[in-house]
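sanity check this chain:
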Amino acid sequence: MACPTDTIAASTRAVANGWTGAGYDHRHACRPAQVACCRSGCAAHPWPVNAWYVAATAAEVTDKPLARQITGRRMVFFRPESGGVVALEDFCPHRGAPLSLGFVRGDTIVCGYHGLALNCKGRPDNMPGQQVGKFPAARNFPVIERYGFVWVWPGDLEQASADKLHPLPWAESGEWAYGGGLFHIACDYRLMIDNLMDLTHETYVHASSIGQKEIDEAPVKTEVTPDEVVTSRTMDGVTAPPFWRMALRGRVCPKMPSSTGGRNAASACRAM
């Protein structure tokens, strides 16, 4: 069964058609079978949802609402006055406006349409001129702030556990340096995984920086476990490509035996 590609648009149409009562829950725009499909993943929503996803860097989330779409779900992130990070569905249960267009007041996020304030659990707190006791709540998503990122769990609340967050020891170690940024890439996320898991493209796309012919020549080892897929290749006795030669400049690199022509083994180089 096909999933609705945009439940927010569907619910907005429902509001336009007069379903504007305080008890209206926009998620009813999906039939039960479709809701189950959206939660588990399907052709329209091909994401594993019971997992932790990077939603933002820690610095991106402030006391101003931040809109993000994770696994096809529109979310809003913000820091309440009491601290921490909150993630809610980016949909006001009153009239369907995006909560990310509102503002944070104390420990609530206030919709910019009619002023409905929701608390950190997504429950309606107050609204000018309205009784909000029967209003539905906006969905609250579990979040973790760790390794310099804000992580969100878009799936089953009961399965969310901090123990399931993949460890990133390099992010907390003074022996590692790393950097990065935010890139908007108009493609299926699985093509990005393919790009990073199959590094043979480096020989051709990055020939002047991190690529070298030995990447093509070295056999690949693939290990599959219930939780991950790891690909690796070992290239003994090769010269580092241009980027790594520059990065390793000033480091102490042991010489390879004479059988390799005395070339530096890039894989053996360590920061001293």
Q: What stands out?
A: The CA atoms of residues 195 and 229 lie 14 Å apart. Residues 193-268 form one domain.
